[in-house]
């Protein structure tokens, strides 16, 4: 295997590993479910993407042609992770899971739960 491919794979694996580590740490350390959703959907998705890019490069070199399985897995993850996080957030909202006290705009949670239109604040004249 050419040295430049090994360097690209190592960099991709390191970047993916760092994002996975940050995502895992955030999942453990963030205080409530609404904040914990950011770690797996953002950092971990980028981490898995880095690992899959390295795998794609390796498999493409072994087979001699472009390996698209990893691209399809990455595309699937990039599409489904935000949708899953949205569904988990809606479930937590409808089960009335309380956010931490410092969360801003907690007064809007009941409005969102009832699917009402959020009115923008009125500007004073």
TrEMBL record:
UniProt keyword Transmembrane helix, yes or no: yes
Membrane-spanning residues where? 6-28, 40-59, 71-89
Print the keywords alphabetically.
Answer: Membrane, Transmembrane, Transmembrane helix
GO MF terms, alphabetically ordered: sodium:proton antiporter activity
Say if the entry is tagged with keyword Transmembrane: yes
NCBIfam families attached to this UniProt entry = CPA3_mnhG_phaG, PRK12674.1-5
- Protein name as it appears in the record: Na+/H+ antiporter subunit G
């Amino acid at each position: 295997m050419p040295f430049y491919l090994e360097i690209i794979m190592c960099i991709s694996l390191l970047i993916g590993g760092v994002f996975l580590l940050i995502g895992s740490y955030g999942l453990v350390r963030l205080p409530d479910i609404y904040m914990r959703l950011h770690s797996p959907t953002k950092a971990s998705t980028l981490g898995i993407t880095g690992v899959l890019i390295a795998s794609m490069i390796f498999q493409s070199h072994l087979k001699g042609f472009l390996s698209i399985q990893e691209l399809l897995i990455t595309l699937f993850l990039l599409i489904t992770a935000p949708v899953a996080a949205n569904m988990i957030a809606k479930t937590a909202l409808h089960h009335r899971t309380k956010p931490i006290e410092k969360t801003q705009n907690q007064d809007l949670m009941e409005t969102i739960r009832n699917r009402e239109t959020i009115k923008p604040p009125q500007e004073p004249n």
